[in-house]
Amino acid sequence: MTQNLVSALSQDDHQPAIKFQVELITPPNEDPAHYFPNSSQITQYQKSDLIFLNGAGLESFEKKVALPKSKILYTAKSFQKEWLSDQKNKEHQHGKEGKHSHGTWDPHTWVDPILAIKQLESIYLKLQSKLTVPKDQGKLAMAFQSLSNHFQQIHQKWLSSLAPKLSSRFMLCSSHPAYAYLSHRYDLKIQAFDFDPTISIDQQNGFKELLTLSQKAKQQGKKVLMLWESEPIIDIQHQLAEQGIESFTLRTIESKPKEESYLKAVLTDLDALENLK
Predict the structure, then answer these.
(1) In b/e form, how buried is each residue of 132-168, taking b as 16+ CB within 10 angstroms?
(2) What is the CATH code for 2-150?
(3) How far is the C-alpha of 149 from the C-alpha of 159, rounded, in Å?
(4) N or C: lower Cβ tally within 10 Å for the chain?
């Protein structure tokens, strides 16, 4: 996901940015936690001027390959004291990649817009140190400020409308333990399950527990809202709907999104969430 923030600074939609050549480590539709680059890709990374990594354990391949330490910037390192522990550090899966765990720390830091700004700032300061032309430094500064403002607006939207609406109307759960930072920032109670979006949900562990949660929600005059990192198959959506459980795809966008930019992808999902009836 760090690659999306780097790309965002070089392709800002509202301010003229510097066109850095950004090579994405993880291909589209691949999970950085499970992806392992081939030898030619590793050689390419080793020749890069800068290598941006999350630092909280997202890119698991990093410990198994030789990357030049002097070129690496861990974008989440500046707020390491704010890292959350991985929920029970248990193995889980969310697609074809199979079982895996993220290690000691939950790496999904950027899902919290305030922490995303801090990661952006780390990237910005490193890139700024590489520029020598004042005009280029000014352009990059404007791009950073523009993106920071957008993420501040996203934070305010969560704070003033989204979080209160979701808490009052729904009992929240997630198919994957990926929203802990969001939960922590906005005091949202989100029960994390371990559901694969490609397999019928009634065949998976945790389904009975989910049904119990749904019954509890009904007793409180609420509805269960299941958050998915990627869109589940139609069978799952139908199975959940039959139980009065609503599904919503709130992407964590760990790899390149289908939209033109990372910011557009985030705003697309939040607009849909805000319009949820």
Answers:
(1) eeeeebebbeebbebbbebbeebbebbeeebbeebee
(2) 3.40.50.1980
(3) 15
(4) C
Note the pLDDT tens digit of each residue in 213-253. Answer: 999 999 999 999 999 999 999 999 999 999 999 999 999 98
- 251: helix, strand or coil: coil
Residues 6+ apart with CB under 8 A from 200: 233, 235, 236, 239
Yes or no: is domain 158-274 CATH 3.40.50.150?
A: no
Whether the CB-CB separation of 227 and 175 falls below 8 Å is answered with: yes
Q: How many CB atoms lie within 10 A of CB 50?
A: 16
User: Residue 216, SS3?
Assistant: helix
Q: Is there a shared CATH topology between the 2-150 domain and the 158-274 domain?
A: yes
d(CA 253, CA 29): 9
Which among 181, 178, 180, 174 has a CA at the least distance from the CA of 195?
174
- Structure tokens of 214? 């749904």
What is the rounded CA–CA span in Å between residue 60 and residue 30? 13
Count of positions (residues) in the chain: 277
pTM greater than 0.85 (yes/no) = yes
